[in-house]
Amino acid sequence: MKESIDFLSTDRILKAVIDTYGIPSIPKREQGFAALCHIILEQQVSIASAKATYKKLENELGQLTPKVVLETPDEVFRACGVSRQKTTYIKDLAQRVTSGSLDFESFKTKSPEEITTELLAVKGVGNWSVEVYLMFCMQHEDVLPIGDIAIRSAIKELYDIHDPEEMRILGENWKPYRSMASFILWYHYLSKRKRKDHL
């Protein structure tokens, strides 16, 4: 971590964020099916809301496995606060794992590009979901999720950059530690708003 912080501290704006709020903790999630289900639930809602929904599912179904998901009626998901659309996504994911077309275990020996290609084939899984999985679950060091609202907002506030392509160009300066830069940006966004959400 020290190496990435030293490198990113050459960016005076990121250094100012670190000086103001401290070094962000790096969250680590389990890899696999349940983790991606959680990320799907996080799409376009707050962290707290997604956590609450995931907790309801766990309380209702126990451990989230492909078998359990496929055997559970859609109405149960709806009762737990999962939208019809996200229920479809989670069941498609479960079907792919069950059929063997998606093997999370194999990700340990695959490149981020290969993992991205496989996950994007899952219904409802886009770039943001893949990037979050790579960062939080697989701990890849060089990911910048430009599609994330908080990341975009932080870059707008700190750098006065509004165009997504220009944001990507800015991110080139943070290679090979764009994930840590993202965590710093998230930390700025949440801390400035005094949000208690934990990544």
TrEMBL record:
The cross-references to SUPFAM superfamilies, in alphabetical order and at most eight, read: DNA-glycosylase (SSF48150)
**Domain annotation HhH-GPD: ranges:** 41-193
UniProt protein name: DNA-3-methyladenine glycosylase II
Entry EC no(s)? 3.2.2.21
User: Can you name a GO cellular component term?
Assistant: protein-DNA complex
Pfam entry (one): HhH-GPD
Q: Does the record carry Transmembrane helix as a key word?
A: no
The answer, when asked if Membrane is one of the entry's keywords, is no
Q: Which InterPro entries does its entry note?
A: Alkylbase_DNA_Glycosylase/TA, DNA_glycosylase, HhH-GPD_domain
Out of the domains of life, which is the source? Bacteria
Q: What is an example of a GO molecular function annotated in this UniProt entry?
A: DNA-7-methylguanine glycosylase activity
Keyword annotations:
DNA damage, DNA repair
Indicate the family of this protein. Answer: Belongs to the alkylbase DNA glycosidase AlkA family.
